[in-house]
Amino acid sequence: MDITNYVVLAAVLFAIGATTVLLRRNAIVVFMGVELMLNATNLAFVTFARMHGDLTGQVLAFFVMVVAAAEVVVGLAIIVTIFRTRRSASVDDVNLLRG
Amino acid sequence: MTPTGFEISGGETVLFWVIAPLMVLAALGLLFVKRAVHAAMCLVFVMVSMAILYIAQEAPFLGVVQVVVYTGAVMMLFLFVLMLVGVDASDSLTETIRGQRWIGLLIGIGLAAILGGVVANAAFPPARGLEGGDPGGVANPQALARVLFGDYVLAMEAVGVLLVTAAVGALVLTHRRRLAPKQTQESVAEARIKALPDGVILTPLPSPGVYARSNAMDTPALGPDGEQVPQSVSRVLRIRGQERPAPPGPAVVSTSSTRGTTGSAPESEKDA
């Protein structure tokens, strides 16, 4: 097996995550799509680290994980706040700024 | 293991071909599953499989961190928020932008095609591997820590600040200001006594009547005057219209009870 297969898998998962973000309406599921995209890039980073024999790729994947954790905390807090005021978790209902 | 003679073992090949299709299936579940909870379960599966792939790819530390941070913390956070928002908060099917579904699908497939093309056309160098076999190799957590706290120590500090900021930000965002004074047991009791002239009852409501024929939350009790007491039936049943009429009228009750007591003695004598 070629190590490139891991990169292909990462690309497929990234595309599925992006499609989830584009298609789903529930804000939480959209957020899960973002998480899937971040995970796919992490897999690519780890694969490239192995491919080049350099640990920097793993370090970058580690930083992506930490930033993703911070992003999840703030994003979910925003979703909860919006749900409290609008009683809805759908991304279509957040249109107060619509002209 | 020489740098040029890097080979992926047969075991890892089997692992990859078992796990990768399952991962893609679970990820597609994220796209097609109706309920948000099921989508979260699919994502948990993808993340655990990803951790297995990390460990197979000579990144044991990242594999453990993946399990602890993603499946342990992040997905539990997702499930908690799903619990707060309500499990039934499923997708609305009305399209606010016309044709958004097809455009989104087209963009997703286009993205997959572009990424696939790039990966297929890129000329990767021959893989070298991290030489994780020997204990002094560079793939173990010590080597990773040396890079993390050597070359990237400033980024590490910045990430620490980011995490604290995110935690405080989440606290501020979800904080709710109390608009009314807090209700205590004492204040509730005072309010009820104050509302006594308006028809509030202080005592517990009468319990429903229990009859052998229908047992009997839905059957109103009879007062001492023989009238039905509508408050004895649960409010929910009354609103739903599932209240049953009390079987005997006042006269029937009195006659049946007297008949029961008076008739018991001769009957027992007859039996004996």
Explain this structure to me?
The complex is a heterodimer of chains A (99) and B (272). Chain A is mainly alpha-helical and 99 residues long. Chain A has a single domain, classed as Helix Hairpins. Helices cover 78% and strands 0% of the residues of chain A. Chain A contains 3 helices and no strands. The longest helix of chain A has 31 residues, at 56-86. The model of chain A has no long low-confidence stretch (mean pLDDT 88). Chain B has 272 residues and is mainly alpha-helical. Among the domains of chain B are: 9-88 and 139-155, Four Helix Bundle (Hemerythrin (Met), subunit A); 194-244, no CATH class. In chain B, 60% of the residues lie in helices and 1% in strands. Chain B contains 9 helices and 2 strands; from the N terminus they run H-H-H-H-H-H-H-E-E-H-H. Chain B has helices spanning 10-32, 36-56, 60-85, 100-121, 141-150, 153-174, 185-194, 235-240, 250-271; strands at 221-222, 228-229. Chain B has a two-stranded antiparallel ribbon. In chain B, a hairpin with a 5-residue loop joins strand 1 and strand 2. In chain B, helix 1 runs antiparallel to helix 2. Classes of the chains: A mainly alpha (99), B mainly alpha (272).
